[in-house]
Amino acid sequence: MESERQDLVVVMAGYHDRMEEFFQANPGMGSRVAHHIRFPDYDVDELLEIARLMVDRQGYAMSDDADRALREYIEVRVQRPRFAHGRSIRNAIERARMRQATRLFDANRKLTKQDLVTIEPDDILQSTVLTDSEEGHDAEGSPQKEAGASVRP
Fold it and tell me: Are residue 82 and residue 111 in the same domain, yes or no?
């Protein structure tokens, strides 16, 4: 890399604490990296806005109660291990959509377009992040699968 400096850009990205561990584990690496830029974490309001944009861009909507439930979810999720900001929000939305699809399938009634595009509070509140303890969960807060075990959406 040293001989090709003028033609090479290397970007290393990661959470601040993990990048510090990386530099500590690799003596001399920190001095070879000229610029360290730290970006602040998203706050709950920003994460909620990101979620709203994702839902909207996917052609869905959230009821007012679902929006409040999502805020509650985010407030809990940011405190959990391995929270990954936008990625965790995207995963939460995908899981809420899966729970919404299951809820609508189980409804066994004629559905309206509004039914099909609206995320309701239970679609979020049934998340294991809100219903189960932290033990036995993966990086995104979902139950770890065991052989033959089923996982609710």
Answer: yes
pLDDT digits (tens, 9 = 90+) for 25-50: 988 887 788 788 888 889 999 999 99
Q: Would you say 120 and 66 are in contact if contact means Cβ atoms under 8 Å apart?
A: yes
**pTM for this structure?**
0.73
Of how many residues is the chain composed?
A: 153
Return the closest-CA partner of residue 66 out of 106, 41, 103, 113. 103
Tokens describing residue 120:
């309701």
pLDDT level of residue 6 (50, 70, 90 thresholds): confident
Question: Residues 47, 48, 53, 56: is their CA dihedral positive or negative?
Answer: positive
Residues 20, 75 within the same domain: no
Alpha helices in the chain (DSSP H): 16-25, 29-32, 44-57, 64-77, 86-107, 113-117, 121-125, 128-131
Q: How far apart, in whole angstroms, are the C-alpha atoms of residue 129 and residue 142?
A: 7
- CA–CA dist 76, 57 (Å, integer): 25
Examine residue 53 and state whether it is found in any structural domain, yes or no: yes
Q: What is the three-class DSSP state of 75?
A: helix
| Residue 58 is assigned to a structural domain of this protein | yes
